[in-house]
Design brief:
alpha/beta; about 45% helix; single chain; seven-stranded mixed beta sheet; 9 strands; D-Maltodextrin-Binding Protein, domain 2; 2 domains; two-stranded parallel ribbon; about 290 residues
């Protein structure tokens, strides 16, 4: 009996240690309350990311690390667990390549914006109305960074429509500088464009008709996360599930970020103007744990 009781006590002790370590691990995760969000140097990505950053830090007591990167690296880092969140996944067409590659390692958390669109964009005064019209336009198409989904689609369009145009790989900022200069001079220009974007509020623009549907129909912008993020940060996942913006809301957010010297200040101003909407996202999620001063 004594030998049997000793075994029982040993098993019970092992179970207690295992339970303690498990609880300690979860407590450690909760105590850290850290999230890393990756984002790209695109207007809507910056805007959505900084809005999330301010709300998670100031209302939900998280420490948020932001990392600027390219879109290919954003998907890879979330898939490999180097980052937790990416809020600017365009689906089903624009980022299909990355989703197909990392499908088993990432989760679709929520739809941030349901009415996104990509394509080739020209000033409204342009004589061109369809992508086919570019056959008579011998200048390059002005694009953004090479890894962007819209750049892959544009390369496909150049082949599908047998276009003579080359494709410039620039930053979004440089592309928009060329757009502004061309409009000021009332010159023809073709850029890789997407909506939502503040340029559609600033300038009179149009998408070129895409009869072959290379760029696809309207898309949705999703927030994606590393698999099993909900286990360690369930309320953060609830927040991103709820955070959805209308066209007016996202365009105004992008604009506030654009005109602010500091994107944090732009996000805070937008939050003040949209308090009711924000409160719906944060309901029962705020201040889960008070900071120890």
């Amino acid at each position: 009996m004594i030998r049997y009781s000793s075994k029982i006590r040993l098993i019970f002790l092992i179970l207690l240690i295992t339970l303690f370590n498990s609880c300690n691990t979860e407590t450690s995760r909760e105590a850290e309350r850290k999230l890393e969000i990756v984002y790209t140097d695109w207007s809507e990505s910056i805007a959505i990311t900084y809005l999330s950053y301010v709300l998670l830090e100031e209302k939900m007591d998280y420490t948020v690390i932001l990392k600027l990167t390219d879109v290919e690296s954003a998907y890879r880092e979330v898939a490999e667990g180097e980052a937790d969140i990416f809020t600017d996944a365009w689906l089903p067409e624009t980022h299909k390549t990355y989703i197909d590659e990392y499908r088993d390692e990432i989760e679709m958390v929520g739809i941030t914006y349901p009415e996104a669109r990509t394509g080739l964009v020209v000033p409204a005064y342009s004589s061109m109305n369809s992508i086919s019209d570019l056959k008579n336009y011998n200048q390059p198409i002005v694009g953004i960074d090479a890894g962007a989904g819209i750049m892959q689609k544009t390369k496909t369009a150049i082949q599908a429509y047998s276009l003579p145009n080359s494709l410039l790989e620039l930053s979004e900022e440089k592309m928009l500088e060329q757009l502004a200069d061309s409009i000021q001079r009332r010159k023809e220009i073709v850029i890789t464009g997407w909506e939502p974007h503040w340029i559609f509020a600033r300038y009179d623009l149009k998408f070129l008709d895409d009869v072959q549907n290379i760029f696809g129909q309207k898309e949705k912008i999703y927030t994606i996360a590393h698999k099993n993020l909900e286990e360690s940060h369930p309320n953060a996942v609830r927040f991103f599930e709820r955070m959805q913006l209308s066209e007016k809301q996202l365009n105004s957010l992008v604009y506030e970020i654009k005109i602010s010297e500091d994107p944090v200040n732009g996000a805070k101003k937008w939050i003040e103007q949209n308090e009711y909407v924000v409160n719906q996202w944060l309901k029962n999620l705020t201040l889960e744990r008070k900071k120890i001063m």
